Amino acid sequence: MIEPLRPPCDNGSVIPNRAPSRTSAPSGAVLRATIEYDGGRYRGWQAQINARTVQGTLLVAAHELWGAGVRVHGAGRTDAGVHAFGQVASIHLPPRVRVSDPADATKRWNDLLPPDVNVLSLALAAPTFHARHDAVKRVYRYRISRRRTGFGKPFVYWVRDSLDVGAMERAARLFAGRHDFKSYCENPEGHDSTIVVVERVEVTAPPEADGLILVRFSASHFLWKMVRRVVGVLIEVGAGRMTEREVARLFVERTGDPARLTVPPSGLFLESVSYPGEPDAVPPHPLRPAF
Fold it and tell me: I want to staple 38 with a disulfide (CB 3.0 to 4.6 A). Which of 42, 108, 116, 128 is the partner?
């Protein structure tokens, strides 16, 4: 078990340090990492004391590879049990460290990581690059299974109800635009604002994956447990237990229904993160991972 050895700090390091100012350039080189991971064994992304986390695991290996002083900032602070196809992290290196061959550095970092965390690529980035602050869009995917599966269960949510995909798709359109997602947020008082501008929410049943339903969300940012609660509401619509009018009312009336309907993290993936001037990432195949 790999754990952070000291309490985590706001600046993405497990070594107590003053968080860097967004107006000052980092003291060393900055790398952009794209990372995939199976979140099933982890208590989320954020480094914590006495808990296995993705950030903490990456930091321990990074310190072994590059020495103390490395900082790792993720674009999305995924919750416990949530997976990622394309998490992005900014790796802030100490001044003395030079990376002349990012491909070789990727291999050496992966050699120090457990098999359920994999660095897909490393690239030199601008000195001011910050994975979380600079991101302009995040895409999440939730995978619902309408049939029992012995292989895909860690990566889907199996729903026994008969689901009307068309009704779910129509209700999903209600979430696009600028809305107050207070009813869909865990601990809304802990957020500066519960207003989120959602680019789109799509519900599809891929023909090549019989029994699989995908729900994809695109937005600049997301609130805590927001995606899992929206999916829970859409399942209620698909099962005929909730109407579109009731869904719309949740934007103006705060109720406990979305919290009660929160779906498990097993089906949720951070699919991709986009930055200014970049094209949208190609979505992973619907069958990835196992189904």
Answer: 116
